[in-house]
Fold:
Amino acid sequence: MTNIDVRAGRLPQEQLTLNFTDVHPPLQPGNALVEANRCYFCYDAPCVDACPTSIDIPNFIRKISTGNLKGSAKDILSQNIMGGMCARVCPTEILCEGACVRETQDHQPVRIGELQRYATDSFLESGETIFTRAESSGKKIAVIGGGPAGLSCAHRLALLGHQSVVFEAREKLSGLNEYGIAAYKTVDDFAQREVDFILKIGGIETRTNHRLGQEVKLDDLRQEFDAVFLSVGLGDVNTLGLESEEIAGVYNAVDTISELRQCGNLSELSVGRRVVVIGGGNTAIDIAVQSKKLGAEDVTLAYRRGSEQMSATWKEQEFAQTNGVNVKYWLAPKSLQSENGHVSGIEFECTELNPKGKLVGTGERRFIEADVVFKAIGQTLVNTLDSDSEIPETEGGKIMVNLEYETSLANVWAGGDCIRSGEDLTVQAVEDGKQAAIAIHRKLT
Structure:
């Protein structure tokens, strides 16, 4: 018989506090200056092309090197109003830094993400503002969802002179930035401080605890507002498709990360002694590492394909391994085993790619004991619309939009993770919101 061991307080509070401090401490002024001076200030900078929001990276770094932090922050925030958060969570290793000339030359790219954080943090701490709302257009737009795409859209609409009302289903704004990112990546309540900065421009009303299909109806919003922007994210989690998936000890990783982020006392959170995470993305990495930091003795992350196929970048995979997570590839979950109604382990089948490149099982089985199993195999769009509402067309579980971010419904736009725009990244959601706002402005004026 396996001893199920799930409990709180595995580590003393002092150790927990240390484990959940900022995983990437900010640059100090001297280090920032040295790093800024490593930039070649390329004319046709490949790092700019690699940034979804097209920040003029050489220009903002040059201003850091000359001590103009306000000008640097303006260059960043004018293109990406959530530049501070993106500096913390962007996979820079495959975006701007991955394209850096220094990376191809000596495998040490300019630390663009850290310089971006240095400039934006300095500006946000100053309490100044660089944005002024344009003269009122008299137009009013409903923004459904207060995550990165919704807030980016609302801010750009305010810059263009439009009024917006942001309807958010949860108690706090900022979406996954507040509820879905590992606690050690964004400390000191940064997500909410960034929200406060965004709202400072004015012209943005927020209504939290307003869920689409319940407190607000799409049909009503289309009648009341000049335009509607849907940025509802992906609210449901894919299942493993196994029997007994609802037994005790099997959890949704997204919900657990949210609980951890909102917890005031980490020592009150229960954690298993042996944890298995199933998935290959950033959410899988985040819950695996956080389980280890909460005191789990043995954490295994199992993925059905190889390292190169994981959506988590090589840097995230390396981070998990250096933090004590045992990453196992080519394993597909087949069955859950339980003891007295609680999960006690999970059986996997080894996988491989056949000559045609299709993933197939080999027939070989592996069993891993577990007190807790986390599902982190992707999220899907939840239909939160009222049954009487006309709904936008979807494809592959996401809302379809054209190049102007328009849905199949008149005067309804969409952006962020809920549309098929490429990577499900904060920086992409911010760009979607910005471009959708510009498209709405063109249509309304």
